[in-house]
Amino acid sequence: QVQLVESGGGLVQPGGSLRLSCAAHGFTLEHYTIGWFRQAPGKEREGVSCMRSGDGSTYYVDSVKGRFTISRDNAKNTVYLQMNSLKAEDTAVYYCNARSFQGDYWGQGTQVAVSS
C-alpha cells in the first residue's frame, strides 16, 4: 500500500526544537520531490519547505529560513524536517508530500503546538 506516515509532532515551548519524520511505504522516495506543508487553525495550507528529487536543491518559506532544515535519508526511505527556535506562529498541522510524474502522495498530518 502506497502511503506516507508522519511522526514527531508534539507540544514544545517557544525556542524549542522538534524533528518531524515522514516515512514512505510502497514507493521509493528518492525519485520524488518532497515537501512539507502546514495548516494553522483558520488559515490556508502553506508550503514550508521542499527538496527536489534531482539535484536536491531546497526551498524554504521566508518565515522559517535559518530555523528549519529539510533532509532525506534514502536508505530509510524517509524525509525529515528539523525545526529549531520554534515560535508560537509555527503551531499547525504539518503534512509531508511526495510528488513526481508517477504520483502525488500526502501524509495524514502531525500536530505541532508551540506554547509556554
Description:
With 116 residues, the chain is an all-beta fold. The chain is built from no helices and eleven strands. Strands 2, 4, 5, 6, 9, 10 and 11 form a seven-stranded mixed beta sheet that branches. It has a four-stranded antiparallel beta sheet with strand order 1-3-8-7, with no helix packed on it.
Series of H and E elements: EEEEEEEEEEE
CA(first)-CA(last) distance? 39 Å
What is the number of helices?
0
Counting copies of identical and different chains, the oligomeric state is single chain
Average pLDDT reading:
96
Structural class: mainly beta
Uncertain runs are none
Approximate strand percentage: over 45%
C-alpha-based Rg, rounded: 13 Å
Percentage of residues in helical conformation: under 10%
Global morphology: globular
- Total strands: the figure is 11
- Specify the biggest β-sheet: 7 strands, mixed
Give the SSE layout:
Layout: E1 3-7, E2 10-12, E3 18-25, E4 33-39, E5 46-51, E6 58-60, E7 68-73, E8 78-83, E9 92-100, E10 103-106, E11 110-114
Parallel strand pairs: 2-11
Antiparallel strand pairs: 1-3, 3-8, 4-5, 4-9, 5-6, 7-8, 9-10, 9-11
In brief:
The chain is mainly β.
Give descriptors for this structure.
116 residues; mainly beta; seven-stranded mixed β-sheet; four-stranded antiparallel β-sheet; 11 strands; globular
